[in-house]
Amino acid sequence: MGSDDTMSRVKDPLVTLVRWVKSRSPRVKTSLTSIAGLLSIMILWKTIEDHDTLFVLAEIVHFLGIGVLAYKLQTKRSIAGLSLQSQILAAIFLAVRLFCSFMMEYDLHTLLDALTLVATVAIIYCMTCTNMKVTYQREQDTVKSYFVCLPCLVVALVAKPSTSHFFGLRILWAFCVYLEAVSVYPQLRMMQNAKVVERFTAHYVFALGLSRFLSCAHWVLQILEGNKYLFQALGSGLWPVMVLGSEIVQTIILAEFCYYYVKSYAEGSGIVRLPAGIV
């Protein structure tokens, strides 16, 4: 057997890999994260039979993320680090999707959306109508919700489902898909302004990132399986491409934050620090 000195000179492949990744630029790290995500999707494709389970898991993770925020509000009595604009956008797309779901197809996702909407509205109430509102960092929450909503509405008028549903419902459906994809942007921008992310807010955004990944994996796997019902529901033209693109955009937007989140805990600090240019 070798001595301790000999053992210490043996390179650990995992440590070497981690050091190599840490030395890359933020953009390269994002690309590597995307590749890892694609590999994860392929593993899920081969191991999970009912891919609709992923969509349900995505909504459950989102709901649990809001539960983390509720715990923070209950124990810390503070909303520091939390973007009111992102919460408003989340409430809007959830309300629109819930309405479309009632009008077009009622299923388990409708119930999960309803629970998530109630929880989101409760968060907004705490941020605007209780004593905690004095801890809101308005000066750092710089992206207004209407600047995000208006472009999504314009895109929805151009690229929408070509199904037989009422014209207005198809526009609303497209609108909520696009809005969901970018609803977290004000939160990411606020964290970028703050540089250091509050711990419970970091847990919440990481849960959003995991939720988005599971949702994206659901759509990709449905397409890989050639789901005929999905293709009939989506219709033809630009809309199916925009749906998949929106899911991918959501995942990419959050991928880099999730990297820094995992990195902070892998290093034992638990403090997420965002470099310039992440969003």
The total of helices stands at: 12
SSE string: HHHHHHHHHEHHHE
- Helix- and strand-based class? mainly alpha
The tally of beta strands, per DSSP, is 2
β-strand percent reads under 5%
Low-confidence stretches: 1-12
Summarize the amount of helix as a percent range. over 70%
Gap from first CA to last CA: 51 Å
Shape call: globular
For the sheet with most strands, the description reads: 2 strands, antiparallel
Q: How are strands sequenced across the largest beta sheet?
A: 1-2
Radius of gyration: 20 Å
What average pLDDT do the residues reach?
A: 79
Structure description:
The chain has helices at residues 4-9, 13-22, 26-47, 52-76, 84-104, 108-129, 145-158, 167-182, 185-194, 199-224, 228-234, 238-266; strands spanning 196-197, 272-273. The chain is 75% helix and 1% strand. Helix 3 crosses helix 12 (238-266), helix 4 runs antiparallel to helix 10 (199-224) and helix 5 (84-104) runs antiparallel to helix 6 (108-129). A two-stranded antiparallel sheet has the order 1-2. It has 279 residues and is an all-alpha fold. It has 12 helices and 2 strands, in the order H-H-H-H-H-H-H-H-H-E-H-H-H-E.
Please provide a brief summary of the model.
This protein is mostly helical and 279 residues long.
